[in-house]
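Good morning C.,

I know you're traveling, so I'll keep this short. The sequence:
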Amino acid sequence: MKNLAYLSLLLLFFTGCSDLEEVPEGQLAPDGFFQSPQDVQTVINGAIGSMATEAYWGRKLSLPIMLRSDMVSIGDQGTPGRRQDVNNFTMADDNGMVTALWPRAYLVIGATNEAILAAEGLDFPAEQVNPIKAQAHFFRAYTYYHLVRLFGDIPYLDRPVDNIAEARTISKTSAVDVYQNIISDLLEAKSNLPDVQPTRALPSKATAAAFLASVYLTIGDFSNAYAEAKFVIDNEGTFELELTPDFQDLFNADVQGSLKEPLLNLDFNGFSDGNTGRDYTPALTGIRANEKGNIGGGWSVAVPTIEVYNTWDGRDYRKAVSLDTTGIFDGIVEPFSKFPDFDSRNIQSAYIAKYTRFPGQTSAGNGRGSSLNYALMRYAEVLLIAAEALNETSPGSAEAAGYVNRVRARARNGGAFPEDVVAGLSQDEFRDLIIEERKWELAFEFKRWYDIKRRQLGNEVFGPTGLEPQPNFDPARDYLFPLPNDELERNPNLLPNNSGY
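The tokens, ready to paste straight into the viewer:
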């Protein structure tokens, strides 16, 4: 666990968040560094920047949770095996995606722990310190929320660890306890964060409540999930929230910064030095050799299965925004049925368009280093959480249907489909409807795998009639990732690994 031993020492600078001042990379916090709340803010900004890197959101976290869903598969059969193993449910505990993600996540957690400890030592009025400290509580919770869903029982650190011997004795905390710690952090954040932040790269009170709603939904506490989502909805004016009128704008880097639908953005700024601050999603999802868009085409790695295109009703405006069905090759516009395969490096399917159509400024070929904002939580999702949770406690609710209808009204884009939810649905029928609505509304936004996991849908969606049949899927193993073997070697207290690995 040597990686964890240095968490308290590394206050990192990364170029992910262009409007946030951060600590230079590798610079150790000198004695007396924390003199003011702004010094604490600087460390938090560094933690946020550390998320906007190739080793975290830029590729190592976002790609696995996209591939693990039933909506995205591998297009380029020559892509590294570690990616194919994630997609095909054949990953081992030495998978490079996992071994890179794990230390980066704990690096973020280490910075938040350092910020919390520093804030507690400042002699400043509470009204100056607590809102900044609350950000650290939020980002610690956010990072653990991914880890616990991916790995289950994990080491839970709530203070800096600066002793190698101590680090080698750290044990796993049960997932149940990790979730309770996440909830405690989010409640702390909700109590002290402001209603509105100057940038949506920073969490607000509504952001904390929305993630509380998501966490409660995940653990099956539907009454609290509804209460937190309803709190956000009832105060949408105070929190300056609204559904963006045009769904396309949510994925247009040139206008994302002015939108009121995101509750939290992870910002990329179109500049990177190597893997630092670099966004790889446009490259990973783009069409190989496509001349459209002047980004040099993509890599055809993460591609929707053809069944996603075939089953998505074409009258739904979200389909047109989410999928590209044509490309340009040698100056000729071709439908996806005629995409050249380049020796099995393209497939004939519609491709993800959310991250390649309007990537903004890019700093490298194939759309790498985009200036896209990734909405880690959108107001539309809050409405759907409220609807799903309410259906579990009060089936047949007109209120729950109304939340879905707000989302569907935008998806119509002036047309007639999708229609409003009909009255009289049973609890089971509405439950199925809401999962389907989330599938289309949040398509390719890194949510689908978590829905499959929390609803235990693997046998259904990866079965022979699913969007992406996966004969290797084993529900006794594959709802969790393996703990990385290098961490287990450094600290045997983390053994045993998750079942099946």
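Safe travels,
E.
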